[in-house]
Amino acid sequence: MKYTSVSLLEKGFYFASLGVALLLSPLTQAQTEQVTAQQFVDLQQGQNHFPGFRRAHAKGICVSGEFKSNGRLSQYSNATVLKAGTHPFIGRLSIAGNSPHAAELTAPVRSFALSFVTGVERWNIAMNTPPVMAVTNPHDFYQQIVALKRGKEAVKDFFAKHPESTDFLAWKANYAPSPSFALETYHSINAFYLVDEKAQRQAVRWRMLPLNEESKNTYTDKDALQQEFATRLEKGAVRFTWQFIFAKQEDDENNPAKLWPSNRAKLDAGEVSITHWRPQLEGNCHALNFDPLILPSGVTATEDPILRARSAAYAESYRRRAKEQLMGALEEKAND
Question: Which value, to the nearest 10 degrees, does the dihedral of the CA atoms of residues 171, 176, 182, 188 take?
Fold first, then answer.
């Protein structure tokens, strides 16, 4: 079997409708209530959106650097990035929310996105600080966001009705946002398959483990994470270990809400080093859609429906901001 990156035709399929994407896997009762990507993005952007910016994770910075692969994953995947060698990337660090003017230190979720280009292939990676989702399907994810917008009692009621959120809530109860992008652990959340030369598949998740020195963030204004990161980079690269976690047969790779047991095999693929940063409107990450379904040969998607929901919503957000930018929405604006 030959595995390739997601084709333009497939991309068009994902773009068309999240409701259609749901038909790719067996439907639960909740999944039969379709939610479109347009509805998702409408909800994320709210009544007062910011033209030209992402509808979610609107505030961030562009970063770049290299991944030094030790080649240990190449026995499981023929992806070029996982072969021994040095691979440059473009990336983005961001906080959750729809405002490019938001205060950063109190943001409950931080994100790290990467984009590798090798030959004619691209591998886009979008990671968040939570290791799992709270729910298992797009409809419930939509209702979770609705609850968040309605307030504390609605959130409490939502989680009471969704026992599958146990692993997410356990993580949330013990998580405290760090004072630096460099000190967070970033997770793939969804699982993927590594595919070797013989088309053998291994389900994995991955995470970026920080290798950076703990230090107090002396900045306090709304751009405190950006300022701390810039100061930190002046002293040297910001580094992470890229670690893969291997599923066993009994683990459900299509369930993004279930954390795999901690004793699952792990393998370090190498070290990611960030060496440069730019404000997002001056860097080359703003024009990228970090769609997690843009994959290289040697990596394929699972049937996790939320993975497809992410792809569809990212595409709709990208379509809106690209059109707005074309119409001049970002002209003469400073970075936020």
Answer: 20
Tokens of 211: 């290798």
For residue 332, the model assigns a pLDDT of 60
Please tell me the pTM assigned to this model.
0.87
Q: CB neighbours of 68 closer than 8 A, spacing ≥ 6? A: 85, 86, 87, 270, 271, 273
Contact 41, 317 (CB under 8 A): yes
Residue owning tokens 């691209």: 122
CB contact at 8 A, 52 and 330: yes
Give the single-character DSSP code of 214. P
Structure tokens at 263: 């004793």
Token match 């906080």: residue? 95
Q: DSSP E strands: which ranges in 70-200?
A: 85-95, 110-118, 121-128, 186-187, 192-195
Distance (Å, whole) CA 42 – CA 47 = 8
- Residue 293 identity (one-letter amino acid): L
Rounded Cα distance, 169 and 104, in Å: 22
DSSP 15-61: HH-HHHHGGGS---TTTTS---HHHHHHHHH-SS--TTS-SSS-EEE
Q: What torsion, rounded to 10 degrees, do the Cα atoms 276, 279, 284, 287 define?
A: 150
Cα 46 from Cα 40, distance rounded (Å): 10
Residues 254, 266: Cα–Cα separation, whole Å? 19
Task: Specify whether the CB–CB gap between 107 and 97 falls below 8 A.
Answer: yes
Grouping H, G, I as helix, E, B as strand and the rest as coil, residue 299 is strand
In 3D space, the residue among 97, 25, 12, 107 whose CA is nearest the CA of residue 57 turns out to be 97
CA 251 to chain centre: 21
| Separation between Cα atoms, residue 251 and residue 264, nearest integer Å | 10
Distance CA 229, CA 60 (A): 11
The percentage of the chain sitting over the pLDDT mark of 70, rounded to a whole number, equals 89
| Of 12-16, 37-41, 225-229, minimum mean pLDDT range | 12-16
Q: Is the CB of residue 241 less than 8 Å from the CB of residue 268?
A: yes
The secondary structure element, H or E, covering residue 62 is strand 59-69
